[in-house]
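Lab notes, practical 5.
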Amino acid sequence: MDAQPQKETVMDIFLLGLKTWLAEMKWLTRAQLGKFEISRLEKELDREYGILGRIAEAPRGRKEEKELCLKQIAFLKEEIATLRDELAGDREERMKNVRNS
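Output from the prediction step:
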């Protein structure tokens, strides 16, 4: 016996569209929050560069401050890169879940 392909009803298509729309709205919200967090971290990074510049103007006795500032800059750069990677991978994962539902 031949297996007949399952026919999609209008309701099935509507539900798939609704699931897709909901997934996109969730992703959009998360993406906006992620972008906000990235911009906040970038502002903090700019501030740290400013502090580092002021430390460089008068370097005497400020080695510890400079090291701390450089560690903070490295941390912020890493955090920004991580958030960007998460945002890129999140949408792919959501679309896989919608297609498999």
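Observations recorded by the TA: The chain has a mean pLDDT of 86. Residues 11-100 form one domain.
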